[in-house]
Amino acid sequence: GQSLEQPSEVTAVEGAIVQINCTYQTSGFYGLSWYQQHDGGAPTFLSYNALDGLEETGRFSSFLSRSDSYGYLLLQELQMKDSASYFCAVRDRGSSASKIIFGSGTRLSIRP
Amino acid sequence: NAGVTQTPKFQVLKTGQSMTLQCAQDMNHNSMYWYRQDPGMGLRLIYYSASEGTTDKGEVPNGYNVSRLNKREFSLRLESAAPSQTSVYFCASSVAPPRDEQYFGPGTRLTVT
């Protein structure tokens, strides 16, 4: 079956760099997505990786290694507003297009 | 351009009552989704609609029904609410898969007593 694993909590200092890892297990694979969710808010899309390598969007980058079934989200120059939960998600290349699985989320806390 | 809208924002139901959660998007997306999110948890897919006229079960469909009324609207119905359905419900839409760039509505906070 499908599963995703990511750390439940990460703490970092303002201005620093933090990496949030995600390992996945699927019977097939299209790509890995990342979403940010502030407390009480809705998830917002951050990035999508279908191919191996690093995708950069401003202070955020996302990496994928398909051979290792592993990806990470890298946040640089951390700001207090980056305190939020971060979710990885995969769509399984199964018989049903509805097989979308989200990880349980990593709560990022940033200290001044 | 409102994106994805959901109504209502909050709802309290008694066990056994029914209700319909409404969702609409104005981004001309083909795919729409309903998720539930329990405290401290990730999102779990309830139902999915790849295009107008089609729906498919997700991970946790029991106790729910959906209708894809047209390309814009996708509703979720609870026929007989149970306390286990207390959750935050999110609707989302996306351009056709496999690229999973989903846009979420603000959510409906449902409590079943």
Short characterization:
The complex is a heterodimer of chains A (112) and B (113). Chain A is mainly beta and 112 residues long.
How many helices of chain B?
A: 0
What fraction, in percent, of the residue positions of chain B are helical? under 10%
The radius of gyration computed from the alpha-carbon positions of chain B, rounded to a whole number of angstroms, is: 13 Å
Flag low-confidence runs of chain A. Answer: none
Provide a count of the helices of chain A: 0
**Mean of all residue-level pLDDT scores of chain B:** 93
Largest sheet of chain A: 6 strands, mixed
Q: N- to C-terminal separation of chain B?
A: 36 Å
Topology:
The complex is a heterodimer of chains A (112) and B (113).
Chain A: E1 3-5, E2 9-13, E3 18-25, E4 32-37, E5 44-49, E6 53-57, E7 60-65, E8 70-75, E9 84-91, E10 100-102, E11 106-111
Parallel strand pairs in A: 2-11
Antiparallel strand pairs in A: 1-3, 3-8, 4-5, 4-9, 6-7, 7-8, 9-10, 9-11
Chain B: E1 4-7, E2 10-13, E3 19-25, E4 31-37, E5 43-49, E6 56-57, E7 64-68, E8 74-78, E9 87-94, E10 102-104, E11 108-112
